[in-house]
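Data card: per-record layout.
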Amino acid sequence: MSATGLIQSLSQPQENGIVIFVSGFLLALGLYHLLLYFQNKDRAYLYYALYALLVFIYTFHRAKHFVLADLVSQCRPYIEFLYDPIKWLYATIYMFFAITFIDLDQYFPKFTYRLKIFLKLGLTTLAILTLIAIVQHNQKLLDYAYNFAFLPVIFLLSLYILFLIYRTKSPVKYYLLIGAGSYLIITSYSHYLTYTGRPFRVLFYAATAFEMILFALGLGQKQKLIIEEKNLWQQLIIKEHEKNLAIKEDLTKKLGEEVSDKIQQINTLMQEKRIAEQKKLAVAYSKQILQLRLQAVQAQMNPHFLFNALNAIKNFIIKNDQKQAVVYLTKFAKLIRMVLNNAKIPETSLKEELDLMQLYIEVENMRFNNSIDFQLTIDDTVNINRIKVPPMIFQAFIENAIWHGLAPKKGYKQLLMKISKNLPYIKIVIEDNGIGREKAREIRAQKNVNLNRESMGIKITEERLAVYTQAFKHKYKIRFTDLYDDQKQAAGTRVEIYIPVA
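The structure for this 502-residue chain is written out next.
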């Protein structure tokens, strides 16, 4: 075949099967990426699928001897009537795809916000104009709006967005730049040939296929990068967990050695000194032993809490929510620093403890999509800077309130914490509007959990309070109260903690 004959054949894509090939290709890509969207929940796949399917609707009925075109042959006048709305719609969907594919809002948040508003207004305008055209059986107004308003604006806007994408540091930006840039150049030239009486529509179909292939490759590359990033986060979590276990083992070993040394010193002094001196020295060393026991028990509690928080980060990564994982890990790292800083001290100020608990509740609340309303009330007579308490002493009660009371509850979730004086104690009330302890025990029974096993966190906390208050005249007190509403239905749990103050 001569070059002239080849060009003549290519200039008739409806006859030579090119339209059938490209349309079938678009249909397959659209359906495939629609399935990928339901699997990955990434909106880039959804916009890509919609874009491919809309272009398919715009092209498939033009082919001759195509089974799908034959099926809708009677509907062709209606499809042709909607040419401009279809082109308007897939151009808008293309914009949303570009924004999501590049994550443009991370680089240019203000512009992206305004662009989305513009696109939504454009869709509203399209719906109104299409409705007018259908009612009046006249699409002149719609044609004018598309050709002389929307098309020039969207063309210039596409060029500007490509320029912004070029300025980003996105690792997949060149897939979009090459695909969209080639499409704009080739289709513009194709339209020019059509307007000058030399139609060569095969260029449009070639540009469309080339663009869709590059976009598909870009989505694949993006998914690959996400998986690699997920693997890196998992490795980081494993390393952090190993470090925490090493810290716990080292701290426990050192504390055990110190306790043994102090006991040995006390026994030696008791044998060598007089009874009066023996009692005096024994009291001094007993205080040190109490502090060491307090730290040893605290060392058991910190890894218990840290392990639960690490599981939360793992869940975010499994759900492919990298942004939430980063935010969570940042807060979690700050929380770890505060917990480890308190690891070797027997007591801390009530203010520092409350700051730590508020950060802990923020970290836990992220695991429940921030659905828990936390309120802290401090009586004016309480000087939280001067009052001392053991570190992490409220964490176990708050953890129980969240996981056993509020987590299974549907609807509004509230967690209250009140601080007041009740001399010779400082009174701390932790109250939730959860499902109550009885319902929690039923749920545990259904899951075959040992009902006689006490919460490790509560048990450790009681032991810490027992050690901490040995030097006080008054001992600690803890009271649990089941709350009920007017219909005698469980309405939550209140815990009252009384800690003696010097």
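Known properties of this structure: The first strand starts at residue 348 and ends at 349. The mean pLDDT is 80.

See the next section for split statistics.
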